[in-house]
Amino acid sequence: MATGRSHRPATRSRGIPEATVARLPLYLRALTALSERSVPTVSSEELAAAAGVNSAKLRKDFSYLGSYGTRGVGYDVEYLVYQISRELGLTQDWPVVIVGIGNLGAALANYGGFASRGFRVAALIDADAAMTGKLVAGMPVRHTDELEKIIVENEVSIGVIATPAGAAQQVCDRLVAAGVTSILNFAPTVLSVPDGVDVRKVDLSIELQILAFHEQRKAGEGGAPAEAEGAVGVEGAAAKVTKPATTADSDRAGDDNKGPDGDVPAVMPA
Amino acid sequence: MATGRSHRPATRSRGIPEATVARLPLYLRALTALSERSVPTVSSEELAAAAGVNSAKLRKDFSYLGSYGTRGVGYDVEYLVYQISRELGLTQDWPVVIVGIGNLGAALANYGGFASRGFRVAALIDADAAMTGKLVAGMPVRHTDELEKIIVENEVSIGVIATPAGAAQQVCDRLVAAGVTSILNFAPTVLSVPDGVDVRKVDLSIELQILAFHEQRKAGEGGAPAEAEGAVGVEGAAAKVTKPATTADSDRAGDDNKGPDGDVPAVMPA
DNA sequence: GGCTGTGAACAGTTTCACAGCG
DNA sequence: CGCTGTGAAACTGTTCACAGCC
């Protein structure tokens, strides 16, 4: 499987760490809000609070982009908005296609957050012929048969997959074959793509499961209201709870064993 | 803001790293699929491929849960499904409420991935009186006025916010006041919550922006088809692209900024 | 022989704390 | 003085490589 080639120290494209890239959109949103309120400058402390991170992290992040602040003053809001937008590639237009116009696809089509950034929905595509021509978010749904044509004609390089899991890989293959090199996958499947194609996935149920994990920990613990740090609860979450609470371990596996010698608990949820 | 208390070495509840917790749902899904095909055992290599991670990582992850494998053989599928479910807290029932029944809320309500895990949608709630009583995914939408009552009566501890950004914080406050301690936020806002409440967020446009960043890097590069490693394109993506492409910097900021002080590694293997 | 489990090396990320500039 | 920018320290996460068991 793994093609001969081994590791790779690279990872960084031009010096901007992935973790930083993932936060730039956050900063951008906070800055956009400030910009709309005509706030001229902002300190790392204020901006960090608005973005839900801590200020040291924010300053470090910005330091990878360059020195865009003014000591003793802060950052110029407009200028930073521009710099981050440029860094993210949002100063250009990105045509995207959304494949799979079910509930989720429709939600995505209607989502204002796309258009307001540099994204333009070039087409909505669905395999169901009954959907063809229907208007969703003011656009006619087009049939899967046209997928390749649409991709090529619009020079689409980003595709969003919102189909059922079963159709995802096939759609993915067609998108890639037609020229798409970045895919946002909402279907609960692992997609295989050739080298050079980026895939990011968003899985609704995974997020809930992670919450359940932490929730369970809280419940297992009697008192202690757990703690966190800065007023805001950011993405990563975690780092909460307060105790090992070896409790709940009761049922089994308490020690080491592994083996249901010949049989399994089978208790399973559903 | 920050309440006296400072850091906390903790982070790990009972030894399971956050990164591992975040992957457990992935393994669980792959295992469930194997289970449905009645596959009795699976090796770390196979399971890793199915989950889209590498086998060393998977083995390390599992080692935090205990020794559930058999050397020379692999893992018992059913048993692992059970262990992971238990670890994630999915062997119990988690009633959740979804607030904001727009396109996205409806998509979530219809999403099968919830019910199939331990999640049960206890109620769909919307502020629009015109929605009240309407059936979505077979459930009647209820009005926001009832929010507190619903939470308490159903002992809901997990809430999903799918409202417009403007309403999110207010909804969040009410959820928390009524007893919710875990929130999955789809609204593009940073939520403030008291200590002990977990928030995870899913932001559709952020994911696209991250893709755009990488896409831009690819475009800046002429040839080199970039590389990746094992056939599958996993979540984190990144680590692709092939060149710094200091190019695009042209327009502005060419003057004062200093970035990484000249050096700039530039080029890369290729 | 095959595959798990894991210490140890490595890589990436966050936090600290303070020098340096406006 | 205030606030940015950043080395260095601390930490978290990943990968390697192999001992140990089946």
UniProtKB/TrEMBL annotation, chains A, B:
Biased composition (Basic and acidic residues): 249-261
Species, as recorded: Streptomyces beihaiensis
PANTHER family: REDOX-SENSING TRANSCRIPTIONAL REPRESSOR REX (PTHR35786), REDOX-SENSING TRANSCRIPTIONAL REPRESSOR REX 1 (PTHR35786:SF1)
Membrane-spanning residues: none
Classification via SUPFAM superfamilies: NAD(P)-binding Rossmann-fold domains, Winged helix' DNA-binding domain
Protein name, per record: Redox-sensing transcriptional repressor Rex
Origin organism lineage: Bacteria, Bacillati, Actinomycetota, Actinomycetes, Kitasatosporales
Start and end residues of each CoA-binding domain: 89-190
Protein family: Belongs to the transcriptional regulatory Rex family.
Gene name tied to this protein: rex
Low complexity: compositionally biased ranges: 224-248
The organism's place on the tree of life at top rank: Bacteria
DNA-binding region: 26-65
Keywords for this protein: Cytoplasm, DNA-binding, NAD, Repressor, Transcription, Transcription regulation
Function of the protein: Modulates transcription in response to changes in cellular NADH/NAD(+) redox state.
Pfam families for the chain: CoA_binding (PF02629), Put_DNA-bind_N (PF06971)
